Amino acid sequence: MANTGMLVSMKPTSVDHSGTSASVNDNGGVDFSAVTSLSLNGVFTSDYDNYLIVVNDINSTGTQPRLIRLRDSGTDELGNYFTQQFLRASSTSRTAGRSTGLNFLGMGETSLVAAGVHVAVYGPNLAQPTAFRSVDVHGESNARITDYAGTHSLSTAYDGFTILPLANTITGKVAVYGIRS
Q1: What CA–CA distance (Å, rounded) separates 35 from 165?
Q2: d(C-alpha 124, C-alpha 127), whole Å
Q3: Are 152 and 100 in contact (CB under 8 A)?
Q4: Where are the domains of the chain?
Q5: If pLDDT is split at 50, 70 and 90, which confidence band does 180 have?
């Protein structure tokens, strides 16, 4: 773990992916190319209660949401456990909504242009429900921003997560940071 002030880089113990490539870089983040799923294991530990996931330079082969699932010991949690709210602003339009489901939509939407997202994760390695807050920004329609908030209802401790594009592939970089109290 590298000390960066209030944020501590969390290097994955392992990375699983479907698609072309994914590897841990020198800074402890993960570079990935043309993947249909990307799993980071061992990034949530008992050392920190809260985490920040930062994804950038994302480009995809088509526009679709990026989803996130919690996982433990190399296995995704599969069940209808997420509840989320969102606010979206693009050009002059604004939308809002609520949903429940297997995945947290808080990784935002990819597009054919570069995008970025940061996700605050509260208590993923604690045996309590996990909360999320994320902001996604990308260049579709000039500038678009989506703000998500959600909860995962199980009182389970998780050590990782999976990013899944709804369709097609994604390319980019992801880093996870533990937040010092």
Answers
A1: 9
A2: 8
A3: no
A4: 3-179
A5: confident
What pLDDT, on a 0 to 100 scale, did the predictor assign at position 64?
64
CB 159 within 8 A of CB 123: no
Percent of the chain topping pLDDT 70: 84
Contact 44, 125 (CB under 8 A): yes
Q: Examine the pLDDT at 121 and tell me if it is beyond 70.
A: yes
The backbone torsions φ and ψ at residue 106, rounded to the nearest 5 degrees and listed phi first, read -70, 5
pTM: 0.88
State which amino acid sits at residue 71: R
150, two tokens: 């959600």
How many distinct helices (H) and strands (E) make up the chain?
0, 15
For 96, the token pair is 């809002």
CB atoms within 10 A of CB 51: 24
Domain 3-179 CATH (choose: 3.30.200, 1.10.287, 2.60.120, 2.30.30): 2.60.120
**Distance, CA of 64 to CA of 152 (rounded, Å):** 22
E strand intervals along the chain = 3-4, 7-9, 14-24, 30-41, 50-60, 64-72, 75-76, 82-90, 93-101, 109-110, 115-122, 130-138, 144-152, 160-165, 170-179
